[in-house]
Amino acid sequence: MPHRFENAEEWAKRFEEPERDAWQKPDEVVKALSLPADAKVADIGAGTGYFAVRLARAVPQGRVYGVDIEPDMVRYMGERAKRENLGNLEAVLGEPGDAKLPEPVDVALVVDTYHHIGDRVVYLKRLGEKLRPGGGW
User: Fold this and answer.
1) What is the pLDDT of residue 13?
2) Based on the structure, what is the number of domains in the chain?
């Protein structure tokens, strides 16, 4: 059974702690991706949008799909995108076996999520089918 992340506001306190930036280095990760301004990106297991909001800022003419299987996280991330005026960030309710991406993406980012995926081979195969030609993770 997958771990549950209900009550997004409580999880946000933990996920968005400034101390996390010191070890996770999100800005360095996003910079290392060298994304073009119009890239389409999927953040798998996006939670509260820790990486998704940074990705959305990095691709102002692109699109970011913040995918999570927890409905409350998807709600929270969608509200956060509105609060932060990130019209290019779409919160997506995925399923344990399928990200449910609405269109192919250039890059799929999977951070702190892999261990939560049940059948990784099937999930990553499906995710790979949603990568555009030349896309990657």
Assistant:
1) 52
2) 1
